[in-house]
Amino acid sequence: MSYLERPQNRTADRQFIRKAMSVPLLEREQEQELAKRWRDKGDTSALHALVAPYMRLVISAATRYRHYGLPAGDLIQEGNVGLMQAAARFEPAREVRFSTYAMWWIRSAMQEYVLRNWSIVRTGTTAAQKSLFFNLRRLRARIEGGNTSADLDSGAKAEIARVLRVPLREVEDMNQRLQGPDRSLNAPLGEEGDAEWQDIVPDDGPNPEEIVTAAHDSLTRSAWVRSAVAELTPREQTIIRKRRLTEESQTLETLGQSLGISKERVRQIEQEALEKLRLAILRRAGDPSQIA
């Protein structure tokens, strides 16, 4: 039996909810006074009095995210973190109700928790993707009259993309992800045999032969460049190395000052050296297509 399935833990959760819902709400003046005491004097009793009445907001928000398959107790804990963040950042001078301000932080904390734990694959890395993740089910239910089991047709996907202002491809990808849970690559394909899902996953990367060939070609091209550079004059080599063969290339003006020539003359020498290199490498490669 897991932690959350134990009767004593379920009882503790119910007791916490009943206690939180029984705390009376605050008037605007009370919120302002408590927030000022906490902000200006660090009065922890004022902090407790400020956040306790609004734990009901945490519980209410947790019910909205329960269909993502995460423990309600964990959602409430994350919501409480958001509530405390709101208390730490609340500015009484702005004349905004603390409950309104806190609700944003509570939802934000819960959404981040859902995105981190709903799947082992990171979901919703942009604001548009987060909006799509949390609104796709609602829009599906509205478009399809409450039926969320059938797959979306092209018209429904286009409508969701228009409403949420996201690319159609993102709607298709997110809908596919929400249709099924994560599956281990080591899960068996069937009841019989030793085959696993990873055995049928295609590998789009290069095969060993292609890797070895690419490495060999790279070494060959590097050797061509080294031998071609060796044919240049010392000044040409200096300019090419400092302009083309370093991560932070020097400017024409800087090179001109160090070599005692104008930056226009540096540019001319560089162009002449590049043409020499091209011809030298062509002699070695034979086929121009081998240089790419």
Number of domains: 3
Class by SSE composition = mainly alpha
> Using only CA atoms, what is the Rg?
32 Å
Silhouette: extended
Unreliable spans: 1-5
Main beta-sheet strand count, sense and barrel state: none
By CATH, the architecture of the largest domain is named Up-down Bundle
Strand fraction band? under 5%
Assign the CATH topology of the largest domain.
Four Helix Bundle (Hemerythrin (Met), subunit A)
Instruction: Bin the helical content.
Output: 55-70%
- By CATH reckoning, the class of the largest domain would read Mainly Alpha
Mean of residue pLDDT?
A: 82
Order of helices and strands: HHHHHHHHHHHHH
**DSSP strand count:** 0
Number of helices: 13
Describe the structure.
- With 292 residues, the chain is mainly alpha-helical.
- It has 3 domains: 1-118, Four Helix Bundle (Hemerythrin (Met), subunit A), CATH 1.20.120; 123-179; 209-290, Arc Repressor Mutant, subunit A (Orthogonal Bundle).
- The chain is 65% helix and 0% strand.
- The protein has helices at 7-22, 28-41, 44-51, 55-64, 72-89, 98-117, 127-143, 154-164, 168-179, 208-230, 234-244, 252-259, 263-285.
- Helix 4 (55-64) packs across helix 6 and helix 10 packs across helix 13.
